[in-house]
Amino acid sequence: MKTILKAGVLAAAVVVLSASLAAPAFARDLTVVSWGGNYQDAQRNIYFKPFAEKSGKPVLDEAWDGGIGVIQSKVKAGAPNWDAVQVEAEELALGCADGLYEKIDWDKMGGKDKFLDSAVDDCGVGAIVWSTAIAYDGDKLKEGPASWADFWDVEKFPGKRALRKGPKYTLEFALLADGVSKDELYDVLGTDEGVERAFKKLDELKPHIVWWESGAQPLQFLASGEVAMTSAYNGRITGINRTEGKNFKVVWPGSIYAVDSWVVLKDAENKDAAQDFIAFASLPEHQAKLPEFVAYGLPNKEAAAKVPAEFAKDLPTDPANMTESISLNVDFWIDNAETLTQRFNAWLAQ
Amino acid sequence: MSAVSSRTGRSLVLLAPLLLFLIGFFVWPLFSMMSQAVSDPAVLRLLPRSAEVLTDWDRKSPPTMPMQTALMEDLKAVDDDQALGDMVRRLNSARSGFRTLMSKTMSALEDTANPPADLVSIDKRWEKPEFWLAIADALSPLTDRNLLAAVDLGRNAAGDIEHLPADRSVNRVILVRTFWIAALVTFACAAIGFPYAMIAASLTGWKRDLMLAAVLLPLWTSLLVRTAAWFILLQEKGLINDLLQTLALIDAPLPLIFNRTGVIIAMTHVLLPFMVLPIYSVLITIPKNLMPAAASLGAPPWRAFLRVLLPLSLRGVASGSLLVFISAIGYYITPALIGGPGDQMISSIIAFYATGSANWGMAGALGVVLLIATLLLYSVYARLSTDEPGRR
């Protein structure tokens, strides 16, 4: 009996082992991961396909929803199945500190001075500058909100509001609505009293808030009339105006912008090709095509200068839009995201 | 004897793929989830010298020079970025601010040209006992911290267990809510599923096939699609409200979405097949002549149902309820899309810890709490179903 048992276990072990050993023999194609939706459709046309043609090798693309835990588990398991990934600023900072990314070869990228300062990092190359702003339907509200104080004013502007579920952005917006100036914003939020004040301000609006989680939701709420105004990603707002002929307005004052970056996962199979891809996607002639499809700002200075005026006015990086907007404080959020999320969830559950 | 053992041997060979699968994809993940919840080696592994020095610390006075020197030496010796990341994540989870503090400290220590004299000269925060307390509390390889936090408990500076402050207590409320929603959904499924299964079992031919297909078809549709469909039906200007308003049955739209009602409706629909199918499979095995027999003995239909059909079909209801309840407590997408902030279930919190902040310890601990609750429930079910007469 023992021999049969042994043989069985052995046979099964051989099957499992050979399967796992055989896997790396098939080289995986360069895999690029981004945020999906019409943004990734645009990226496919202007970056992925042209790069595949140039290099003569296929480029696979996948979509993800963010989260440092996803990246961490892929890298820790060894041989991650993604190569180049577009990440948010906190994921860049956290992952770089934790050694989850390869260091960027900046000579390949054409030198650091070609990019905006906020787009340059040891582990990442800025891909877009995007913004979270108030959006409202210009056809329904002739005179729309001009600030977060207006967003909070349910008497002047009746109707529900939508905000992204989570403390990031929400606490900032609450403090802005409470009259904190944009220069003092993170100093105030950095104190216990400031956090208290933000939650108190949120209490006022709580019965009127619908919470959204994925970027397409707020615009759907707005289109169906479920809410009177919402926070939304600026690229989505401009996108729906162009494709569906809506008249959704972006309120730039008080909007918060951040940089998304390309990173290469540590020890990824195609890490060199991934750096080549990022260099390709950062070239001004390629990057400059993006605003025609999605209204995100460009970190390559030369590319930004090439954008036609009709598209440039919708970008977060346009000087007129930039004056009253705020840069997301990444250091604050990598320190406080966990405790504030816990607190936010407790507040939400009350 | 040998014939018997060789037969067991052969059946073991046949079972081997299943066993390997179970070990690889069930036992091992479950075990690692549970060990993640209680193991806490990230800090101790990197800070052995500090661990020695910190045992003499009184846990409230400012850091002494030997403490600072030990920590600086430990940090200088770190050569694994990912291990460092694990440690910083663990410490930042206990005390916000460690992220920036550590990256500032590490880059200052790397600057060999002008080495810092002590940690306080790098950043004033190193003066505060709170940060040292976070390190001191993270030096045991096993911890009950996550499990306690999963039920809103924590240890104070003296090491006694106490309730977390209200603004950090969320898990208990959400756990109770999770079980409550699951119970309501189970009840709704039983209330709809039982009559449905009874009608289906009493029919024959194409009518029965049609009724079963109506249950099975949604089961083959993606969960996300069904949830999105409910979103369209339930919203303020959606099909249901439009219809009711055109019929002038209501003046203002009913609030059907972003609240508990919507979540219960959508989850009941999604989980209904798991109730109908077990009940149906029990009902068709009950001999058709029992009800007429009860009637011939003088029982009116309601009594025949209560005394004959219901007890015989309870087994199906129980297993259906168990299936629905256990599936329901893990729901994530439906409450997230249809529910309001007051309807989020525990899986959304677990998802935040797992993917959002890579705090696997907390995610594991909440998973353990959910697992224990499920096991308790199952043991109640097992006891009830063995006590049932006629099943033995």
From TrEMBL, chain A:
<dbReference type="InterPro" id="IPR006059">
    <property type="entry name" value="SBP"/>
</dbReference>
<keyword id="KW-0574">Periplasm</keyword>
<feature type="signal peptide">
    <location>
        <begin position="1"/>
        <end position="27"/>
    </location>
</feature>
<dbReference type="Pfam" id="PF13416">
    <property type="entry name" value="SBP_bac_8"/>
</dbReference>
<keyword id="KW-0732">Signal</keyword>
<protein>
    <submittedName>
        <fullName>Spermidine/putrescine ABC transporter substrate-binding protein</fullName>
    </submittedName>
</protein>
From TrEMBL, chain B:
<comment type="similarity">
    <text>Belongs to the binding-protein-dependent transport system permease family. CysTW subfamily.</text>
</comment>
<dbReference type="InterPro" id="IPR035906">
    <property type="entry name" value="MetI-like_sf"/>
</dbReference>
<protein>
    <submittedName>
        <fullName>ABC transporter permease</fullName>
    </submittedName>
</protein>
<feature type="transmembrane region" description="Helical">
    <location>
        <begin position="263"/>
        <end position="283"/>
    </location>
</feature>
<dbReference type="GO" id="GO:0005886">
    <property type="term" value="C:plasma membrane"/>
</dbReference>
<keyword id="KW-1133">Transmembrane helix</keyword>
<feature type="transmembrane region" description="Helical">
    <location>
        <begin position="304"/>
        <end position="333"/>
    </location>
</feature>
<dbReference type="InterPro" id="IPR000515">
    <property type="entry name" value="MetI-like"/>
</dbReference>
<keyword id="KW-1003">Cell membrane</keyword>
<feature type="transmembrane region" description="Helical">
    <location>
        <begin position="179"/>
        <end position="198"/>
    </location>
</feature>
<feature type="transmembrane region" description="Helical">
    <location>
        <begin position="210"/>
        <end position="233"/>
    </location>
</feature>
<keyword id="KW-0812">Transmembrane</keyword>
<keyword id="KW-0472">Membrane</keyword>
<feature type="transmembrane region" description="Helical">
    <location>
        <begin position="360"/>
        <end position="382"/>
    </location>
</feature>
<keyword id="KW-0813">Transport</keyword>
<feature type="domain" description="ABC transmembrane type-1">
    <location>
        <begin position="175"/>
        <end position="381"/>
    </location>
</feature>
<dbReference type="GO" id="GO:0055085">
    <property type="term" value="P:transmembrane transport"/>
</dbReference>
<dbReference type="Pfam" id="PF00528">
    <property type="entry name" value="BPD_transp_1"/>
</dbReference>
